[in-house]
Amino acid sequence: MTKYIFVTGGVTSSLGKGIIAASLAKLLQARGFTTTIQKFDPYINVDPGTLNPYEHGECYVTEDGAETDLDLGHYERYLNTFTSQANNVTTGRIYQHVITKEREGAYLGKTVQVIPHITDEIKRRMLLLGEDNQYDIIITELGGTVGDIESLPYIEAVRQLKWEMGTENCLVVHLTLIPYLKAAKELKTKPTQHSVKMMSENGLLPDVLVCRTEEPLNKEIKRKVALFCNVTQDAVIEALDADTIYGVPLEMMREKLDIICLEKMQLPLGIEPDLSKWKEFLNKLRYPKSKVTVGLIGKYVELQDAYKSILEALIHAGAMNECKVEVRNIHSEYLTKENAKDNLHNLDAILVAPGFGSRGIEGKIDSIRFARENKIPFFGICLGMQMACVEFARNVLNMPKAHSTEMDPDTDQGVICMMEEQKAITQMGGTMRLGSYACDLQENSITARIYGSTAINERHRHRYEFNDKYIGEFENAGMMAVGRNPKTNLVEIVELKDHPFYIGVQFHPEYKSTVENPHPLFVAFVKAAKHAQEQRNGIAKRPFEKTLSK
Ligand code: GLN
User: Fold this and answer.
1) What is the per-residue pLDDT across 438-463, written as a single tens digit (0 to 9) for each?
2) Whose CA is nearest to atom 8 of ligand 1?
3) Does the CB atom of residue 416 touch ligand 1 within 6 A?
4) Which atom number of ligand 1 is nearest to the Cα of residue 461?
5) Which DSSP string corresponds to 257-289?
6) Alpha-carbon span 408 to 405, nearest angstrom
7) Which helix (DSSP H) or strand (DSSP E) does residue 502 occupy?
8) Which pLDDT score, from 0 to 100, does residue 421 have?
C-alpha cells in the first residue's frame, strides 16, 4: 500500500520546502523505495503557464507538456525520474473541476461548498498517483505557508486523510525556521511554536519538524522544540544553511530524516543508501579545477528563479567538466550594438535565454551577432535560437526587416513565424507546442556527436517556428538545420559552420538535465567555454570540434 508524506511550511516562505521534499525523496529512493513528489499550489491560476516569471519564477515543463511550478524541476533533478501533469495541482484546477461538475449537475442539487466538495477533490487528487500502487511513498509538498487563508482547505484535507489512514500511512513533515538573534546571541524557537500551534488549531499536528537555522541546534533547543511542539525528540531535524542545494540530501541523511520518517510509517529501513554518484558530483562541484564565465542574456536576469533550470543545468555541466561556471547575468534590455563589446568581450561563452515578447529583443540579437562574429561559443535556447536566425538573416543574408512575427507581425521577412495549425488555437495557455517531441539529427552534425545519437526527444514550450521557406538561403550561407521533427519536419536545431561552437535549439534542454544525467548540450557548451579560454591562453591547440568523439 502506498504511504503518504506531506511537507508543510511555517513561519515564512522561501525556506526551501521543495529542496527538503526532494532531498527526503532522494534518500527514500536510495533506500529502494519507489517515490515521487507532487506539489499542490494554493493560487487560483489553473496552472503556472500564464504567470509572469517575475511572479513565480520559471515555468517548468514536463514530458507530457504540463506547465508546472519550478519545484517539479527540483524533483526531477534530484530523483532522475519524470513527473507529469498529475504532479502539480493548483487551487484553480481544483475549483475548475468542481465547478464543471456542478454545471453538469453531478452534485444533484446539493449546495456545493469548500467542505466537503473542495476538500474531497483535493483529497482525491492527493491520492491519485498512488492508485495503481506504482509508488511505495508519495511525498506531497503543500505550497504556501501555514496560516495563509488559501492554505486552509489543504490543511483540512491532510487532517482528514491522516484521520482516515492513520499516522503510519500519512505523515506530516513541517518545515520551519529557528532564527538566530545576533544581539541576543540566541536561537529563538517561538516562531516555530506559533506555526505549529496555528496548524494544531486546524486539527493537524506535525510528526516531524525540519528546522532551518543558521546556527547548529543544541540538544536543549531540540528538546524545547519537541516539548512545545508535541513531537518526539528525534523528530526535530536540524537543517543548517547549505553551501549548495545539492548538499542537502547528505545533510538530511546525517540528521536521519529518512530513518525517522520510515520508522514513523512503520516501514523497514530498506537497503543501505548508496549515494556515491551523488557524492562524486558534489565533490566535483565543490572542488573545481578551473573556472569559466558564461554570459546569460535575458530580460528576467535580476530574478534568479526565472532561469532556474538553465542555472541548474549549468551547475550540473560545470561539475561534469570539473569547472566552476560563473554566470554573468546580462540584461538584454540594456545591451546595444555600441556597448556589446564592453559587456561581452571578457566572456568565455554566451547563452541567450528563452522568452516571450519584444522587451530586450534587440539586445539579444546584438549579443548573438557579437558571439557569431567574434567566434565566442554560443548557445541559443528557444527564443535564443529564433533570434540567432533573425540575426543571421539580417546581418548575413541581407534581410534588414527579418524578424519573428511574434515581435513584428507585419514583416514580409518573417524568418520565424507561426505555423498554420497553431494559428487556429486562441485560448491563452493552449496555443503552445508543449512537452516532449522527437527530433532527428543529421548524422555528421556537431549536435549528433554531442548527444552520441541521431534520435532524441526534448521538451518544448513555444508558439513560433523557423520558416522553412528560407532554409536554402540559410544553408548556402552556412547556417544549417541539423535537427528536424521527424513527423512535421519543423526545424529544431541550427548550427553554424566555421564557428567553434554555435548551436541554437528550438526546445528546452535545460528541463532534462539532472544531477545523475547532466544534459549533453550543456556539458558540451561548458566544455567549449573552457576550450575557448584555453585557446586564448595558448593551451589548447586543436579546434573544439576535434575534441568531440566521432
Ligand atoms: N516566444 C517564442 C515563441 O513563442 C519563444 C518561446 C520560448 O523561448 N520559450 O515561440
Assistant:
1) 999 999 999 999 999 999 999 999 99
2) 354
3) no
4) 9
5) HHHHHHHHTT----SPP--HHHHHHHHHHHS-S
6) 5
7) strand 502-505
8) 66
> How far is the centre of ligand 1, averaged over its atoms, from the C-alpha of 46 (Å)?
21
Task: Indicate if ligand 1 lies below 6 Å from the C-beta of 222.
Answer: no
26 lines ligand 1 (CB under 6 A): no
Distance 49 CA to ligand 1 centre (A): 13
DSSP secondary structure of 324-372: EEEEEEEEGGG--TTTHHHHHTT-SEEEEPP--SSTTHHHHHHHHHHHH
Which SS3 state, helix, strand or coil, does residue 29 take? helix
Q: Which residues contact 479 (CB under 8 A, 6 or more apart)?
A: 389, 392, 396, 494, 495, 496, 497
- What is the identity of the amino acid at 336? T
User: From residue 498, how far is each of 373, 396, 495, 538 by CA, in Å?
Assistant: 11, 14, 10, 20
C-alpha cell at 225: 522544540
Q: What confidence score (pLDDT) does residue 501 get? A: 97
Name the closest-CA residue to atom 3, ligand 1.
Answer: 462
| SS3 label, residue 117 | helix
* Residues in the chain where the model's pLDDT stays below 50: 427-428
Which DSSP category does 290 fall into?
E
- Letter string b/e over residues 430-467, b meaning 16 or more CB atoms within 10 A of that residue's CB: eebbbbbbebbbbeebbbbbbbeebebebbbbbbbbbb
pLDDT of residue 276: 94
At residue 543, what is the residue type?
Answer: P
**How would you label 75-96 residue by residue, b for 16+ Cβ within 10 Å and e otherwise?**
bbbbbeeebbbebbbbbbbbbe
Question: Quick check: CB of 61 below 6 Å from ligand 1?
Answer: no
Residues 6 or more apart whose CB falls under 8 angstroms from that of 549 comprise 449, 452
Stated pTM of the model = 0.94
Whether 329 and 296 have beta carbons less than 8 Å apart is answered as: yes
Question: What pLDDT is attached to residue 431?
Answer: 75
Distance (Å, whole) CA 464 – CA 78: 32
Which are the contacts of 103, defined by CB distance < 8 A and separation ≥ 6? none
